[in-house]
Amino acid sequence: MAVSKRESVLWAVYDPEKDRTSYLMGTMHLKSSKAYSYALLAEKYVPLTDSYAGEMNLDAAEQADLHQHFQLLPDQSLSDFYTKRQYKRMSSIFYKVTGTKLTQVENLKPMAISNIIAESFVDVENELALDHHLWNYALKLDKELYGLESVQDQIEILASIPMKYQVTSLKQVLTNVNKYGKSITILGNLYAEGRFHKLYRKSKKSLGSLRLLMLYRRNKNMVNRFVELSADMSLFAAVGAAHLAGKNGMLHLLTDKGYQITPIFE
């Protein structure tokens, strides 16, 4: 069965063998009002299920202190990876964009600094990122809570992103920071409009050589976990919106496994 071309970030996933419906939602890991565009829709369907899953178990992630995996080795500094001229120019741009001196975060890996830059282009209008908000909502409803990936999976993914790629990527981001900011804004707009197919294509393009690591392989693993968790109970799962679409996306992979998927709009 082909995936519907209709645009929605929330999908009913029906298991004909068990006569049971679960749900899969695409989210954004942001605190903006655009990221929250479908929060009320999600809150309507989470109560209908027995369990909730995020990309990972956020409680376990907090205990594991994932932030340490965004840090360079103790004897490293961000300036080690650039010439003095490059670092000086990057520092100037970083300060203009974020209001923070690069020396204050020079113990972080380049990808973490890229994330800081991305967040500076997004309005912070909510206390928590959407995925964290939905996790807490499910917790208040006493739902069984799970992760479609383990914390160890996340750690291994972070460790697998080549430093050379990170160094080059950060340099490109700061060299073309206005263009980068516009791309972040566009992704937010696409999500608010529910246009997840185009959001996926733009995300895929930006990942370049990391598509297999960051999208395709993870999609397959998360679908397998979705199938496992929903075998005995109904499940509401929330993942980054870029994981939904495409021939290697979670929706397509679920239809390949015999599930019937239907977009939800209200």
Molecular structure report:
With 266 residues, this protein is α/β, with parallel strands linked by helices. It has one domain (10-264). It is built from eleven helices and six strands. The protein has a six-stranded mixed β-sheet with strand order 4-3-5-2-1-6, sandwiched between helices. A hairpin with a 4-residue loop joins strand 1 and strand 2 (20-27). The protein is elongated, with a radius of gyration of 19 Å. The two termini are 23 Å apart. The model has no long low-confidence stretch (mean pLDDT 93).
Descriptive tags:
elongated, 266 residues, 48% helix, alpha/beta, 11 helices
Provide a short characterization of the protein structure:
With 266 residues, the chain is an alpha/beta fold. The chain is built from 11 helices and 6 strands.
Q: What is the overall number of helices?
A: 11
CA gyration radius, whole angstroms: 19 Å
On the 0 to 100 scale, the average pLDDT is 93
Tally the beta strands. Answer: 6
Q: What is the H/E order?
A: EEHEHHHHEHHHHHEHE
How much of the sequence lies in strands comes to 5-15%
Q: Level of helix content?
A: 40-55%
Quickly count the domains. 1
Topology at a glance:
Elements lengths: L9 E6 L4 E8 L11 H7 L5 E6 L1 H7 L19 H15 L11 H11 L9 H11 L3 E6 L1 H10 L2 H13 L1 H16 L3 H12 L3 H20 L4 E6 L9 H7 L3 E5 L2
Parallel strand pairs: 2-5, 3-4, 3-5
Antiparallel strand pairs: 1-2, 1-6
Helix pairs in contact: 4-7, 7-8
